[in-house]
Write a structure and sequence with these properties.
2 domains; 0% strand
Length: 97
């Protein structure tokens, strides 16, 4: 082995030992019990899930509104420009689907 691989090995060993010591200190000095921590994590997970569902619903409503506006505009243009507009409306609907 060369000197560089030995120093990288020592670094990795030091990082692992430091990580284990850090985890041990964190567990010993935790301000609440494990069940309290699990309950807190569960509550935060439920809150995050609810926020994600709300965001998805809001985004869906906005997308449907935008699609409706595009469709209405295409129909408006279709009535102005006749057959060429009908083809445009069909193209827009195909793209948006």
């Amino acid at each position: 082995m060369n000197r560089k691989s030995i120093s990288i090995g020592n670094l990795l060993i030091g990082v692992l030992i430091g990580g284990f010591v850090g985890v041990g200190v964190a567990l010993l000095s935790a301000p609440q019990s494990g069940s309290q921590t699990r309950n807190m994590l569960h509550d935060k997970g439920v809150e995050l899930r609810d926020r994600a569902n709300t965001t998805v619903q809001d985004t869906r409503v906005k997308a449907e509104d935008a699609f409706s506006k595009v469709r209405n505009r295409a129909e408006e243009l279709s009535s102005r420009f006749g057959q060429h507009g009908t083809q445009t409306t069909q193209s827009v609907e195909t793209v948006l689907e």
